[in-house]
Specification:
The protein has 15 helices and twelve strands. With about 325 residues, it is of the alpha/beta class. It has a seven-stranded mixed sheet with strand order 3-2-1-4-5-7-6, sandwiched between helices. A three-stranded antiparallel sheet has the order 10-12-11. Residues about 1-5 have low confidence and may be disordered.
Length: about 325
């Protein structure tokens, strides 16, 4: 399909520019160029040297036109992903295909410079969220329940897939930023060589049982394997918190505000479900967070649910606060 300008992907491009500003890779590959918007923004808004590749000839024509319109000197190539990875050793590779990232992960993780970064956008959410269990099992070798937690579980499943595929090649893929928005997941990794580091990350892949971890009202079943480590790196979060205003945008602001709370816990407490169980009206999320903080807990909102709370407490602590 020829490339087109996708306005709904503005957040995706914004977070990409922000990440590159924060990590400062020397040379970057926009491997699925489309109309060239992401690569052009990287060239104009950051200090990285940009290369754009796009296999579709019509889309490539848009890229060359748009580069000229912006008076930029950017290396652009009408070639596919694997050929583009052969052009140079890149410090940052952006992989944003239509659909699953599975066909591209192996090549991306072995092609980036050690200590460099790889970003992935996945839109095969029906596979990642367990909406089609046979697809989840076939593509990712996992079992996920399609419930209110499906998008956090989907992000964790995708991270585990990348971490495991990198480890196959004795590389450690450390997740630095992770987000879900509408129809896509966006993940950023730092890649390093080393069996020991790869093994340490593999040890963070495991199973999640909501009955044991959250509350005994949930079905007692193991889901996964999924990533059980951090979704976001504190150092990178600190860097982007001081840079995001240079890009602006309400959507970007929302994620920058929420990301520091995502690692308070694996999964979140769903206030709607809790209220149903204890027969009360659903409280305001902000009120619950305030009460938890007043009680000495760390708590915040989550991007994965409008009625979800991330906190370092257990269900007894939470229900006592609600009571």
């Amino acid at each position: 399909m020829p490339g087109f300008y996708n306005l709904s992907q503005k957040l995706n491009r914004d977070i990409s520019v922000l990440f590159v500003k924060a990590t400062q890779p020397r040379k970057s590959l926009d491997a699925f160029g489309g109309t060239g918007v992401r690569g052009i923004r990287l060239a104009k808004e950051t200090n990285t040297e940009v290369v754009i590749s796009e296999q579709n000839p019509k889309a490539y024509d848009y890229i060359t036109h748009n580069i000229g319109q912006n008076n930029l000197e950017i290396g652009s190539y009408n070639i596919g992903f694997h050929e583009a990875c052969d052009l140079d050793i890149f410090d940052y590779i952006d992989v944003d295909p239509y659909g699953s990232i599975v066909p591209y992960v192996d090549r991306a993780v072995v092609s980036v410079r050690p200590g460099g970064y790889v970003a992935f956008t996945a839109t095969d959410l029906s596979s990642l969220t367990g909406s089609v269990p046979s697809k989840t099992r076939r593509r990712y070798g996992a079992f996920i329940t399609n419930d209110t937690f499906r998008h956090e579980m989907g992000v964790r499943l995708l991270i585990s897939y990348v971490v495991h595929r990198a480890a196959v090649f004795d590389r450690a893929a450390m997740p630095l930023l992770s987000l879900w928005n509408s129809h896509f997941y966006r993940l950023f990794f730092r890649l390093e060589k080393g069996v020991k580091k790869a093994d340490e990350l593999i040890d963070r892949i495991g199973y999640v049982n909501k009955n044991h971890m959250l509350w005994d009202v949930y079905t007692d079943v193991d889901e996964g394997p999924v990533w059980t480590g951090r979704l976001n790196d504190p150092f990178v979060l600190d860097r982007i918190s001081g840079l995001w205003t240079s890009i602006g945008g309400k959507a970007l602001s929302k994620y920058v505000d929420l990301m520091p709370f995502e690692d308070l816990s694996i999964l979140f407490y769903d206030l709607t479900r809790i209220s149903q169980q204890i027969h009360t009206s659903v409280p305001r999320v902000t009120q619950v967070i305030t009460k938890l903080r007043d009680a000495g807990f760390k708590a915040g909102r989550t991007e994965f649910s409008d009625t979800g709370v991330k906190c370092n407490c257990n269900i007894r602590d939470l229900t006592s606060v609600l009571g």
